[in-house]
Design goal:
This protein is an all-alpha fold. The chain has one domain. Helices cover 67% and strands 0% of the residues. The chain is built from 4 helices and no strands. The longest helix has 21 residues, at 16-36.
Amino acid sequence: MSSCRQGQGQVLQDPRFGVAAQLNVWNTILEKKSGENPLFKEIAESQKVFAERVVSGTRHQHSRRMSVNHFFGAKRAAPKKA
């Protein structure tokens, strides 16, 4: 990440199909591990309840981009070369 901060790298967003595939695999893992281990199931369910509470509060907030631009300035286009 330090190279990205210095303008030497690029952070790309994962493609939607990749994220969907990861989430489907994670559901399979959760079902399997929850069936094998009651403590795992309890912790996973607790984390899900917490995540639902946190995420539901962020759905009605302003864009994160607004906050980033406020603190770090809007990204400006590089000047055109002649």
